């Protein structure tokens, strides 16, 4: 019988697998996003608690089956990988549950995760969506989907349900009002709340300057 794998080995094999799978992503969901989310999640967990193995594994796998990156909505790639690692059924269940609770689903949709581990991974993912890095990722995503940077005639929408949020293809600046500026007040942990302050105010300054330049040249 095959020997049971050590947690360290499971994590390093998962890291290798995810790194390969997300290497060529140009939508802001590349390996370095995963790397930052993993490190942020572990940093938050040092102060807030939670099971570090579940947190690290969920952070590494959290975007492998993301709806934005062409998935079937059943977390099949994630489950297949966890089964290949021969993890116990309960662990596979816990990890898929955490991963399924991470994603943002629209301004009007409540997405408070049920476990501390999921709350921490969600916070880490959301911290990487804001600030200077968040701004870069958002324009990368918009560009990868062929979206305009800004169109003053298209107003932001506060999506009331996930279906409407998914269908949205507005200009990238709108995403700040539909998601990014709302995240600071939707974080689960105090530690993430503190880390969000600077990132949030940097986005506000960025938008102020964006519109100053836009209107300075007489655009409407
Ligand atoms: P989540 O699961 O919460 O959506 P992800 O890690 O999958 O988190 O990445 C979300 C990021 O993708 C956003 O913060 C943003 O950078 C980018 N993104 C998603 N939707 C849009 C959009 N409509 N316009 C611009 N960027 C977007
Ligand atoms: Ni993510």
Q: Return the average pLDDT rounded to an integer.
A: 94
Radius of gyration: 18 Å
The kinds of small molecule bound in this structure are: adenosine-5'-diphosphate, nickel (II) ion
| Largest sheet: number of strands, sense, barrel closure | none
Estimate the global geometry from the Cα principal axes: globular
Total of DSSP H or I helical runs spanning 4+ residues? 10
Assign a percent range to the helix content: 55-70%
Helix-strand sequence: HHHHHHHHHH
Taking the alpha carbons of the first and last residues, their distance comes to 70 Å
Q: Which class do the helix and strand fractions yield?
A: mainly alpha
**Low-pLDDT windows of residues:** none
Tell me the β content. under 5%
How many beta strands in the DSSP annotation?
Answer: 0
Question: What topology emerges from the helices and strands here?
Answer:
Blueprint: H1 7-21, H2 31-48, H3 52-61, H4 76-84, H5 89-100, H6 116-127, H7 131-144, H8 162-167, H9 172-178, H10 190-216
Helix pairs in contact: 1-3, 2-3, 2-6, 3-5, 3-6, 6-10
What do these coordinates show?
The protein has 220 residues and is mainly α. The protein has helices at residues 7-21, 31-48, 52-61, 76-84, 89-100, 116-127, 131-144, 162-167, 172-178, 190-216. The termini are far apart. The mean pLDDT is 94. Residues 28-29, 63, 66, 68, 102-104, 125, 129, 134, 137-138, 141-142, 168, 172, 175 line the site of adenosine-5'-diphosphate.
Can you give keywords for this protein?
220 residues; mainly alpha; 10 helices; 59% helix; globular; binds adenosine-5'-diphosphate; binds nickel (II) ion
